[in-house]
């Protein structure tokens, strides 16, 4: 029997992202701009298949071939003829929709492989009875054979990645990072392949994602590096072509210049061009149609430096954006409230856009609730950034049915359900704007200039002068590598907890008096519950975390439990079903005292280690709280088993498509179901599906030998 954590349940939530009204309120020009940006995003999003696992591409193409020939409704009778029962066919549909929603056969939130929840012979029988197989038996059988990893689970503790060839280890990643730093190259849009040695020298290939293909070779330390353009070339070409089309409908010069730089980036593999595009994007204040695209988040790179592709297009929600604008206006008053000295804050706060958006398109492995971008530290620190909250995602992603609400005292559940949405809205706002948007990195640049006074700035934890900092091309990601993403999410979450205690903040979001206190209570309760739920994403065999945000929330739970005085209680119980259970509690009367003090101290330590590039101190602090053991007052390894027993699958989202008809754009919407999600993907690439699938299989086949 396969462990339930490795398949998606038949009753998994599937919700349609509603953007119909927002899209229809756009002008024809804005709709065309949104359409071509969406096309660029969807084509680029296919890169994620190649970034996820060796077999993801073949599974995707197999499913596309099946559903292009027969819809889910038509395949239902085929499944029955092949001997599948209704539950087995639903499991097949859920697996397929999960593959599309995650852009691969690993969960985007947690990086656990998921497999079909039906016998492999039943899955094969369905494929063999399908019209796709009948029309092209040899092709479909070849795809089936390429999907061998689909049919069985290989729980390999070290895991698998396609950012590095299978023969690369941490030492190779560190050497490659030093090489990239020496050439002032970013790792964001790269992959690393270890090739055949030449004499005594190790040899590597650094691939840049681009449509263009020239190479250059360099000797570095005791190795030879060949830097190649052309990774994902056919897909990057599609991205660039659609960005070029979008440019014709840009609203202003900043949007045009932004798109020109993005096209350069995706054509020539230049991160510097993407940075330039991001600069114009920051200057594009308050657009009606907002978007961003590229190799952005580094959560899934084991080394923490390489970005996964994503692209989004969204429409501004003016009412909610007005609240966020008021928060931005108050930022300069709120930032000094954070628990670190003024010298550890940016020299000046560059007021960003902060908008609430209704997502039209979010192509990638998953959809977040909010974003703070760009991720380039040099731009964020001196030129600015933008924040977005994804309103139509928040509206459906975090709703919870009372009967499925786990690990809370019964008398807290109604309050939790009522205030979770409003409190999370506050947390997202603070997390993105004043969490990711705060704090200074101490830097000595290539010209030996410092951005802080070495003779006066002192470490508030030790009282001593600052003795470490970032040098030259070093960045937060390259320096803190494997812990960087989770550590930063933890810092931002702590900022949200800390500043939500501020009455001015709560008033901005429309909460006063007792209502404001309920928002605070549920925000903190939600955080400690999330810390417990986070144990699902810990792998005991490798003592590693698979999800940055959930590791961060577990760390916060540990900090608040350590604060003592009854602030947080966590007890193991037996549920009404006779199975192990747990209950987590929070004393609301101690949040403003014990809780605030604990977060204040911890948050200051996080910032000091980050500002001063103190990797050793930061790693010791963070990994200490991240440890999941059976020692101490709580047996977290045992609690993890309880969490796995009672876990609920994350929702999947169905997104609309757009289609040009003459001079207008039609919005194609789908039902919130597994079948609706499948239909949306089948129709998304209907015009050039076979060409795309050929490209994907060629790209996958080219590297197949590298993952062994």
TrEMBL record:
It comes from the Eukaryota. Gene3D superfamilies: 3.30.540.30. Zn(2+) binds at residues 431, 436, 489. Its cofactor is Zn(2+). InterPro entries: Dipeptidyl-peptase3 (IPR005317), Peptidase_M49 (IPR039461). The active site is at residue 432. Its EC number is 3.4.14.4. Binds 1 zinc ion per subunit. Keywords: Acetylation, Aminopeptidase, Cytoplasm, Hydrolase, Metal-binding, Metalloprotease, Protease, Zinc. One of its GO terms (cellular component) is cytoplasm. It catalyses: Release of an N-terminal dipeptide from a peptide comprising four or more residues, with broad specificity. Also acts on dipeptidyl 2-naphthylamides. The keyword Hydrolase applies. The keyword Cell cycle does not apply. Pfam families: Peptidase_M49. Signal peptide: none annotated. GO terms for molecular function: aminopeptidase activity; dipeptidyl-peptidase activity; metalloexopeptidase activity; zinc ion binding. Belongs to the peptidase M49 family. This is Dipeptidyl peptidase 3. It comes from Denticeps clupeoides (denticle herring).
């Amino acid at each position: 029997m396969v462990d339930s954590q490795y398949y998606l349940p038949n009753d998994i939530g599937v919700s349609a992202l509603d953007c119909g009204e927002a899209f229809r309120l756009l002008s024809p020009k804005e709709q065309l701009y949104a359409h071509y940006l969406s096309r660029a995003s969807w084509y680029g999003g296919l890169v994620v298949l190649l970034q996820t696992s060796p077999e993801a591409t073949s599974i995707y193409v197999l499913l596309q071939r099946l559903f292009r020939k027969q819809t889910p409704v038509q395949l239902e009778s085929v499944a029955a003829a092949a001997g599948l029962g209704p539950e087995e066919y639903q499991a097949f549909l859920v697996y397929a929709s999960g593959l599309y929603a995650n852009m691969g056969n690993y969960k985007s939130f947690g990086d656990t492989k998921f497999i079909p929840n039906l016998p492999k012979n039943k899955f094969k029988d369905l494929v063999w009875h399908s019209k796709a197989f009948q029309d092209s038996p040899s092709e479909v059988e070849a795809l089936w054979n390429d999907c061998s990893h689909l049919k069985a689970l290989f729980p390999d503790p070290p895991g698998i990645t396609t950012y590095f060839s299978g023969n690369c280890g941490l030492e190779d990643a560190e050497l490659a990072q030093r090489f990239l730093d020496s050439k002032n190259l970013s790792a964001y849009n790269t992959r690393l392949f270890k090739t055949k040695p030449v004499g005594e020298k190790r040899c590597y290939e650094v691939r840049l994602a681009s449509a263009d293909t020239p190479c250059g070779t360099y000797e570095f330390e005791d190795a030879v590096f060949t830097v190649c353009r052309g990774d994902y070339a056919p897909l990057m070409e599609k991205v660039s072509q659609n960005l070029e089309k979008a440019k014709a409908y840009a609203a202003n010069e900043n949007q045009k210049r932004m798109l020109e730089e993005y096209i350069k980036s995706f054509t020539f593999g230049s991160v510097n061009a993407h940075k330039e595009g991001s600069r114009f994007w920051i200057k594009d204040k308050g657009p009606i149609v907002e978007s961003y695209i590229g190799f952005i988040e580094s959560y899934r790179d084991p080394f923490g430096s390489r970005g996964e592709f994503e692209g989004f297009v969204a429409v501004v929600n003016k009412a909610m954006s007005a609240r966020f604008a008021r928060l931005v206006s108050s930022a300069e008053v709120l930032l000094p409230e954070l628990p670190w000295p003024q010298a550890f804050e940016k020299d000046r706060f560059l007021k960003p856009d902060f908008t609430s958006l209704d997502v039209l398109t979010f192509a990638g492995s998953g959809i977040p609730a909010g974003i703070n971008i760009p991720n380039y530290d040099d731009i964020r620190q001196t030129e600015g950034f933008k924040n977005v909250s994804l309103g139509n995602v928040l509206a459906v992603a975090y709703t919870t049915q009372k009967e499925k609400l786990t690990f809370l005292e019964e008398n807290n559940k109604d309050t939790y359900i009522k205030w979770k949405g409003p409190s999370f809205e506050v947390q997202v706002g603070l997390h993105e704007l004043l969490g990711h948007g705060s704090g200074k990195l101490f830097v000595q640049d290539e010209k030996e200039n410092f951005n802080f006074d070495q003779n006066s700035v002192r470490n508030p934890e030790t009282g001593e002068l600052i003795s470490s900092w970032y040098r030259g091309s070093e960045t937060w990601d390259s320096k803190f590598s494997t812990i960087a993403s989770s550590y930063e999410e933890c810092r931002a979450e702590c900022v949200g907890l800390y500043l939500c205690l501020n009455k001015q903040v709560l008033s901005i979001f429309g909460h006063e008096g007792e209502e404001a206190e309920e928002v605070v209570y549920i925000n903190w309760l939600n955080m400690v519950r999330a810390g417990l739920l986070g144990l699902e994403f810990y792998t005991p065999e490798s003592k590693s975390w698979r999800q940055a945000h959930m590791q961060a929330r577990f760390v916060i739970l540990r900090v608040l439990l350590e604060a003592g005085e009854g602030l947080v209680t966590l007890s193991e119980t037996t549920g009404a079903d006779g199975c192990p259970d747990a209950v987590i509690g929070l004393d609301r009367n101690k949040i403003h005292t014990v809780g605030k003090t604990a977060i204040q101290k911890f948050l200051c330590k996080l910032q000091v280690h980050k500002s001063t590039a103190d990797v050793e101190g930061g790693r010791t602090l963070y990994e200490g709280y991240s440890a999941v053991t059976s020692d101490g007052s709580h047996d977290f390894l045992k609690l993890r088993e309880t969490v796995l027993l009672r876990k609920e699958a994350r929702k999947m989202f169905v997104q609309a498509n757009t289609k040009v008809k003459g001079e207008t754009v039609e919005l194609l919407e789908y039902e919130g179901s597994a079948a609706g999600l499948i239909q949306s993907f089948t129709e998304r690439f209907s015009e050039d599906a076979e060409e795309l699938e050929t490209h994907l299989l060629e790209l996958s086949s080219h590297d197949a030998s590298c993952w062994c």
